[in-house]
């Protein structure tokens, strides 16, 4: 019999596996989703309704995208033809599993149309796709490399975010990974989350690659001007930042103040949100320590998986 913390661990592991299947499985074909849905969102299925994972006949994300340059993947994501295969039913917002093709190249990707975003009380409507792109831009400019290639584009259900699909390493226990205090990749991601003010870093949002790299997904609730950091990665709270984190923060500050990043972010974030991002990076560099959990805001997202 499993009792106490053991039962909680078993439940968490089970939820992590379900989350992995939702993100990494191949959804069943979904012809209704391919039918013409108006750009204003009418007819987009409600969250939690749609295509179960584990179907057959849907292409699996291959290794070709991993071998291509980032610029080539961005070009393909931005201009390729999207074919929707199914919907990830566990996602809070409409999230489509797609293949994108152009000039003989193809890749699996995730497409999140604005029309399928659920309204939130603490973030402006219709801004989540832009925040996902902003997270990628910050990750790229600072050399964090924790967000998969991401673009903002039009699609079958209107404009939205399109991101390269990541096939995570099925051998990695996500709960065990999230609890690790010695994983340098995870520690670097925790600093990135503090920089972008990630309000939803769950265990299921970690995407460890078979080669050892670590990505994160679902950055739609980042960049609030108010402190809203909610994460499962608090194990380094109060500890000194690593040289790698300080170097990435320095690059981020340079890009935000003297580089092109600030101009790029103006299309997706408000002036107050950009200014708050600059203040966060400067504070992290001044204190040189991992932040502490907030006292007036839930420190861990719910559910944490």
Which strand order spans the largest sheet, edge to edge or round the barrel? Answer: 1-2-3-5-4
**Portion in strands:** 5-15%
Structural category is alpha+beta
Number of DSSP strand runs: 7
Count up the domains. 2
List keywords for this structure.
305 residues, 2 domains, single chain, alpha+beta
Question: How would you concisely characterize the structure shown here?
Answer:
By secondary structure, the protein is of the alpha+beta class. The chain has helices at 4-24, 31-34, 64-67, 70-79, 128-141, 174-179, 184-196, 243-257, 261-265, 271-287, and strands at residues 81-87, 96-102, 105-113, 150-153, 160-164, 206-208, 214-216.
If you had to describe this structure to a student in words, what would you say it looks like?
- With 305 residues, the protein is of the alpha+beta class.
- It has two domains: 15-23 and 59-164, no CATH class; 174-287, no CATH class.
- The protein contains ten helices and seven strands.
- It has a five-stranded antiparallel sheet, with helices on both faces.
- Helix 8 packs antiparallel against helix 10.
- The longest helix has 21 residues, at 4-24.
Task: Give the SSE map.
Blueprint: H1 4-24, H2 31-34, H3 64-67, H4 70-79, E1 81-87, E2 96-102, E3 105-113, H5 128-141, E4 150-153, E5 160-164, H6 174-179, H7 184-196, E6 206-208, E7 214-216, H8 243-257, H9 261-265, H10 271-287
Antiparallel strand pairs: 1-2, 2-3, 3-5, 4-5, 6-7
Helix pairs in contact: 8-10
